[in-house]
Design brief:
single chain, 322 residues, alpha/beta, FAD/NAD(P)-binding domain, 5-stranded parallel β-sheet, 6 helices, 19 strands, 27% strand, binds NADPH dihydro-nicotinamide-adenine-dinucleotide phosphate
């Protein structure tokens, strides 16, 4: 395999695959390092979900996450992208051509598109990842509709937990479980949930482990009360984890500008119209798309959209230099 490329894409969720599809179609022969950042197989967070009902184009009951990702990869491959299921170990963006290492193999690139995504913070219990989509969920917008007229637990006390709890009350009764009495959530979001009669509160409960049905799906949590020390089972039809997200940006520390939560900062195009979104990072020639730079929308379709933007930005940036 050639070691120098016009475009290297790091990550293979909807953002990376769409960037690969577009740059492939533009004849740039992208190489994609499809890593394991979401904790599951290459393909990102959708590899850990079941049905996706809100990705446009699949009206008959949606499409399974892994199938969608397999199809995106197939389409990008047909356009000339080459995928390698490996993690990138190191990058050097200090000068061009940029350097990317996989083990001892050094690759160089004229442009790099970073699409390493983010992962949901979990409790850290062994085998927890395998419970995702088996009664344990990390995205209410994605999976809430499976709980019509049911009872769910939302874990967390930040804005994400409030947002997820609010959204879930469209379908279900919500028990909000938080380990303290104080909240990180903004006052306005907290008040909105407090006024919602479909939400009950279990405060000062730290989750210890998941309760499982005979078929291995989650039916609640066991939690410890931080005031009384009591351990109790809290049952529900499903559990939504909302204790934050972790962007997969370790690889880029000290090289690309991040915000206070570790997300890559984009929009750095010099002279670009103010307020107009673009995928330029703090290093010219390195672009970022998807959840690694977006803590607001976090949807497959928005990730795919920003992957398209990164490909167009990279393509134009290269064309200006030819
Ligand atoms: P936060 O870090 O703000 O909150 C995480 C919550 O999870 C905290 O309540 C924390 O508890 C709890 N938690 C963390 N680890 C554990 C654990 N191991 N066990 C139990 N509980 C745990 O993350 P968010 O995702 O809520 O928000 C991230 C950022 O995104 C914030 O800046 C937020 O404002 C922003 N955001 C904004 C939105 C909006 O404006 N629409 C929507 C969503 C997010 P504790 O407080 O005790 O540490």
């Amino acid at each position: 395999m050639s070691m120098h490329h016009k475009v290297i894409v790091i990550g293979s969720g909807p953002a990376g695959d769409t960037a690969a599809l577009y740059t492939g179609r533009a004849g740039l022969k992208p190489i994609v390092f499809a890593g394991f950042g979401a904790g599951g197989p290459p393909g990102g967070q959708l590899m850990l979900t079941t049905e996706i009902e809100n990705f446009p184009g699949f009206p008959e009951g949606g499409i399974a996450g892994p199938v969608l990702m397999q199809r995106m990869r197939q389409q990008a491959t047909e356009m000339g992208a080459v995928f390698h299921d490996v993690d990138v170990d190191k990058v050097d963006f200090s000068k061009r051509p940029f350097k990317v290492w996989v083990g001892d193999d050094e690759y160089t690139a004229e442009t790099v598109i970073v699409a390493t995504g983010a992962r949901s913070r979990l409790l850290g219990i062994e085998g927890e990842e395998k419970l995702i989509s088996r009664g344990l969920h990390t995205c209410a917008t994605c999976d809430g509709a499976f709980y019509k007229k049911k009872k769910v637990i939302v874990i967390g006390g930040g804005d994400t937990a409030m947002e997820e709890a609010s959204f879930l009350t469209r379908f279900a009764d919500v028990n909000l479980v938080h380990r303290r009495e104080e909240f990180r959530a903004s006052k306005s979001m907290l008040e909105r949930v407090r006024k919602n009669p479909k939400v009950t509160w279990s405060l000062n409960w730290q989750p210890l482990k998941y309760l499982l049905r005979d078929n291995g799906t989650v039916k609640g949590i066991q939690a410890k009360n931080s005031k009384s020390g009591k351990v109790e089972d809290i049952e529900a039809d499903g559990v939504f984890m909302a204790i934050g997200h972790i962007p997969n940006t370790d690889l880029f520390q000290g090289q690309l500008k991040t915000d206070e939560n570790g997300y890559l900062v984009t929009g750095h195009k010099a002279g670009g119209p103010q307020g107009y979104p673009n995928t330029y990072t703090s290093v010219e020639g390195v672009f970022a798309c998807g959840d690694v730079q977006d803590h607001t929308y976090r949807q497959a379709i928005t990730a795919a959209g920003s992957g398209c933007m990164a490909a167009i930005d990279a393509e134009r940036w290269l064309a200006e230099r030819e």
